[in-house]
Specification:
Number of strands: 10
CATH architecture of the largest domain: 3-Layer(aba) Sandwich
Order of helices and strands: EHEHHEHHEEEEHHHHHEEEHHHHHHHH
Number of helices: 18
Strand order of the largest sheet: 2-1-3-10-6
Oligomer: single chain
Structural class: alpha+beta
CATH topology of the largest domain: D-Maltodextrin-Binding Protein, domain 2
CATH class of the largest domain: Alpha Beta
Shape: globular
Distance between the termini: 45 Å
Helix content: 40-55%
CATH superfamily of the largest domain: Periplasmic binding protein-like II
Length: 389
């Protein structure tokens, strides 16, 4: 029998690489003619790199949903919709969390299947809060009180700062990328000042932290007690993964009793349009997103599934201090990011003027003007703003 070799690329973290290796090992065992090989790249490269070159070198790609507009124009990924039986697609729809599946649908095409689900969540060290005599904050004023004691951090890496700011604007009722302004100006100005006050209690080091860096610092030392919003990682809620276990929760009702609106993260598994073993690649995709694999292999080996079945599984929740049950509401209500061609550059760079304002280097008006300029530039790049989905 001729050996089929499928090459895939994911991102470099215990949430991404080990669960795919575990699933691939089992897939090879029940498909003896297929060999699976996985490479990995950084989280920043995962979120912002051009997929065209990767699609030429790999059969399977773990991708982010804001890339769908550019994927649609470039033709780099296979449209999976016509390749799936109607019954299989219906099963996927039934088990997918929130908008995880819908985020990969663009212009009536389906460019990936949801393999991983995430959204910003609150996280905390219960031992530090107990020692200091504070409960997790339930309102913005309580968050600021905790911040004044230098116990709060948030990821300030540009892309994360931008997406958390987007969530704040959404929570206050702003539209996003629908007109001449990226956000409703009055709401954006209010959120920027709220964010600046919160950041004023934090060290410069936050601006080089993505969620992984923040959780690593939070779980390895006793300086950080609480983070109000960062893309969630169940690994840090699992005993034995880091020095200290973190607890996660849906974002608190920080605004007049209204929970913070989250912005959908997670990943999808896609097949290169140049894949020469399309049937085998699709078989693996269906295997790894099945409820059984998402729960028993993918989730148990450190993954953060996109399957409703997995998020409700008693064993996965027992392994993670109920991470999945505690944060599922934030996933189910999460907002799909813009996906128009050109948006990726806005996400990559949009946090820079926000950070400049938080550091006191530019005014709020300048920061918002710079954001709008970046937004208009991203639209003009492909002249596709009217195709925003």
């Amino acid at each position: 029998m001729k050996q089929i070799r499928l090459r895939g690329i994911t991102w470099n973290h215990s949430r991404a690489f080990p669960p795919l290796v575990a699933a691939s090992q089992r897939f090879e065992e029940i498909h003896p003619g297929i060999e699976m090989v996985w490479d990995k790249r950084s989280l920043d490269e995962f979120g912002h790199s051009d997929l065209a070159a990767l699609a030429g070198a790999y059969d399977l790609l773990i991708i982010d949903h804001p890339m769908m507009g550019e994927v649609h124009l470039s033709g780099t990924l296979a449209d999976l919709r016509p390749l799936l039986a109607a019954s299989a697609l219906e099963q996927i729809k039934t088990d997918a969390l929130g908008c995880c599946l819908a985020s990969y649908c663009y212009e009536n095409c389906l460019y990936a299947l949801p393999i991983d689900a995430a959204a910003p969540a609150a996280s905390f060290r219960a031992d530090i809060l107990d020692r200091c005599g504070f409960p997790p904050p339930a309102a913005w004023t309580e968050l600021l009180d905790l911040g004044r004691r230098r116990l709060v951090r948030m990821p300030g890496f540009p892309a994360d700062l931008f997406l958390n700011f987007m969530g704040m604007c959404l929570s206050h009722g702003s539209s996003v990328a629908t007109g001449d302004h990226l956000f409703a100006p009055e709401i954006a100005a209010r959120c920027l000042e709220e964010l600046r006050e919160l950041a004023s209690f934090m060290p410069e080091s936050i601006y080089s932290m993505n969620p992984i860096g923040l959780y690593q610092a939070m779980s390895s030392a006793d300086e950080i007690a609480y983070c109000p919003f960062a893309y969630s990682y169940s690994n840090y809620a699992r005993p034995g993964f880091a020095d200290h276990v973190l607890q996660f929760a849906n974002p608190a009702a920080l605004y007049d009793g209204t929970p913070l609106r989250t912005v959908l993260g997670g990943t999808g598994i896609a097949v290169s349009a140049r894949c020469t073993n399309m049937d085998a690649a699709l078989d693996f995709c269906l295997f790894v997103i099945s409820p059984l694999c998402q729960t028993a292999l993918y989730g148990a080996c450190g993954g953060q599934p996109a399957s409703k079945t997995a998020w409700r599984d008693p064993l996965l929740n027992a392994m993670s201090n109920n991470f999945f049950l505690r944060t599922v509401a934030g996933i189910e209500s999460a907002w799909i990011r813009p996906r128009y061609p050109g948006y990726i550059a806005l996400q990559r760079d949009g946090g820079v003027p926000i950070a400049d304002h938080l550091r006191g280097q530019i005014s709020a008006a300048s920061a918002l003007q710079n954001l709008d300029d970046l937004y208009r530039k991203s639209c003009v790049t492909f002249a596709r703003r009217d195709r925003l989905r």
